[in-house]
Design a protein that fits this description.
With 353 residues, the chain is an alpha/beta fold. It has 10 helices and 13 strands. The strands form 3 sheets. Strands 10-9-8-11-13-12 form a 6-stranded mixed sheet.
Length: 353
């Protein structure tokens, strides 16, 4: 039967052979559809990625400082393999690509390092979705005016809760001390051992600088309490610096996002004096994501004590919790329990803050 086949039919197609030698199955790329899965979960390691700190976020672009050097600012996008991984100011990230920092260049963020601390909040106490405001700050400077507007203990209490649970050391910073005495307001938080600093326009700035030197500090406060004034005193060229890092190459400053600014050191270079993260004026500070156990767990001695509490204990003490183990503590620990319980009352309160 083979003899009936014409020679031309038996002869292989030369062009097909050349094509087969030039390509193989690895050259075929299929764009995945909505229902398909990636062929592998293997991701590039990016061992050569440079470490950077995120200092601003604006419309899908992140301003990043390489090696903690404020002069090495690059604009980066999020790499596709990170998907929707949230990236916030203060995050330590790995950056590859064009890290020259030249105008109209883009690097890629390929890795987000584990966070040491997080400042979280929700839109209100009924919102189940928490939002990370700042990452990796070691301190939270809570800026409160003693008058005009009058101070609100509820806001401070909620900010303290967020700081303790997130791993930040809180500092109470009081402004406008020329309009009212600070002693009574500060006394409300004495049993929590919260440092108190006066930072009115007539107060020396030395104590604030000493507290912030060499550290990453987030600043929060209601609009009108003097937070922006304080930032401008700490960072003399804050307006210019804010325009650079918050616009991330697009020439626009946004007051709705946090921005990290370098603190000048003793030489004024701003390279080793620490960072302040200026957050927008807080209208609300929801804490729907925080439980009483989270609050007491932030204190080493109290965390050990609540292990002996009965299941479901709210730690508020009698009459709600007559068997709460915290009531067996004495001395300074007992005073701290009372102070933290006041924080829980603020946590459970729906009154305005």
């Amino acid at each position: 039967m083979g003899d009936d086949v014409e020679p031309e039919q038996r002869r292989p197609d030369r062009s097909a052979l050349l094509t087969a030698r030039r390509y193989d199955e690895s050259d075929v790329r299929v764009r995945p559809g909505k229902g398909s899965r990636p062929r592998t979960k293997t991701r590039p390691e990016h061992k050569s990625a440079e470490t950077a700190m995120v200092v601003s976020v604006d419309r899908g672009r992140w301003g990043c400082v390489l090696g903690d050097d404020p002069d090495r600012l690059v604009v980066a996008m999020r790499a596709r393999e990170l998907g929707r991984t949230p990236i916030v100011v203060g995050d330590q990230v790995g950056v590859v690509g064009d890290v020259s920092g030249r105008t109209d260049t883009l690097a890629r963020i390929v890795r987000v390092e584990e966070r040491s601390t997080v400042l979280r909040r929700t839109a209100d106490d009924t919102d189940p979705f928490e939002r990370i405001v700042v990452a990796n700050a070691s301190q939270l400077l809570i800026v409160v005016a003693l008058a005009d507007p009058p101070p609100r203990t509820g806001f401070v209490e909620r900010a303290l809760v967020a700081a303790y649970v997130g791993g930040l050391a809180p500092i109470l910073c009081l402004t406008k001390g020329d309009l009212a005495d600070h002693a009574e307001f500060a006394a409300a938080f004495a049993d929590l051992d919260v440092p108190v600093i006066l930072a009115g326009q007539d107060d020396p700035l030395g104590p604030v600088k000493d507290a912030l030197a060499g550290k990453v500090t987030a600043l929060i406060g209601h609009s009108g309490v003097g937070k922006s004034t304080l930032v401008n005193r700490l960072v003399p060229d804050a307006d210019r610096a804010t325009g650079v890092v918050s616009g991330v190459g697009k020439g626009r400053h946004t007051s709705t996002q946090s921005v990290a600014l370098p603190l000048p050191d003793a030489t004024g270079s701003g390279r080793s004096g620490g960072w302040v993260i200026d957050t927008p004026g807080i209208r609300s500070f929801g804490l729907a994501h925080i439980s009483p156990d989270d609050v007491f767990g932030a204190f080493t001695d109290l965390a050990a004590a609540i292990e002996d509490c009965p299941r479901g204990c709210s730690h508020l003490g009698p009459p709600a919790d007559p068997e709460c183990a915290l009531d067996r503590l004495e001395g300074e620990a007992a005073r701290r329990v009372a102070a933290v319980r006041l924080l829980l009352v603020a946590l459970n309160s729906n009154e305005a803050w």
